[in-house]
Amino acid sequence: MHKRMKWFACAVALVALAGWMTPVTSAQVRGKTGKAMTDKATKSRGTGQDPNIKNKSQANDPNAKVPKTRGGGCVLELHNQTPWKVQFYADGNYEELVAPWSTSTYSFSGTYTLYARADFTDGSTLTWGPRTATCESVGWVYPWTWTE
Fold first, then answer.
1. Whole-prediction pTM value?
2. Which of 31, 74, 91, 124 is deepest in the core (most CB within 10 A)?
3. Max alpha carbon distance in the chain (Å)?
4. What's the average model confidence in pLDDT over 32-47?
């Protein structure tokens, strides 16, 4: 009986090890992927008000509370494939600064107009978008890649 228990324990360990070593695709981990978006930068001299930006402030307005959504939502993956710091906006409101050559995530539900902008010391700008993203189903991932 003692040998059978050792054999059973070894068999269970081998099955567990085989399951641990089985590769898991990113789609299995992340859920479904929405339409991928890639934008090449548009260069401008940066003069005048940008119509795609409503609020550039990082400060919170105490009177403008964002409603909490029930359940989860979707994830927007922001892929900054440039050497520049890029400001990310959703519906014209500043959300975050994405570092050069990095990826960040933004959770959302519903439909948003997306926009990104890199400002330069000479007054010029690079912009990506505007784009529209709609969260089609909870757990979906939408990649958005910025290039030069």
1. 0.68
2. 74
3. 84
4. 79
